[in-house]
Design a protein that fits this description.
By secondary structure, this protein is an alpha+beta fold. It is built from four helices and five strands.
Length: 155
Amino acid sequence: MVRVVAPARPRKLVKVPFVELADGRLQGVVSSGSDIGRVYVSSITASTHAYHCSTNNNRPCGGLRGAPCKHLETLANEAVLQYGLDRVARYLRVEPDAEVNTGAELLHGLDSRHEPSSAAVVFSRFLRHLSYLEVPGSTTPLPELHWFPSTRVAR
C-alpha cells in the first residue's frame, strides 16, 4: 500500500503548476513571469546539487548566470509549501541552518553548480499530470492507474 502524504500547506498552482521530488531531483514546471505562453523546467539534483533551468524545448534560462535563477528559487519555495522544509532538505541531502525558512534560502545554502539536463522527461510528466484533469469523475478504476491486481477471485 502506498502512503499518500498531505501537502504541508496549500499552494497556488498558477506560478508552479507542477513540483515533485522524483528521479533523484527536486524538479518541476514554473510559469514565465513575462510570457504567459512560456514555461520553464527547473531541477536540482539531490546528490550533487547541480541545477538547471530551461524552457520546455531546451532553450536555457537567461537568468542562469553562475547562480540559481528566480525560477529555481520559486520551484524550491513551492516544494517547501508542498512537502515541508524538512522533507525537501532530507531529499536534497542537506542539513539546513536554523535560520533557513524558505526553499530559496535552502537553495542558496547549497554548494551548487550549473549542469545542463534535458527538460523532456519532466515536461512529459507534467503533461501527463494535466491529462488526468480532463478525465471525467468516476468511481471505476482507470486501467493505467490500476497498478495492483485485484484481490477478488475470478469465478
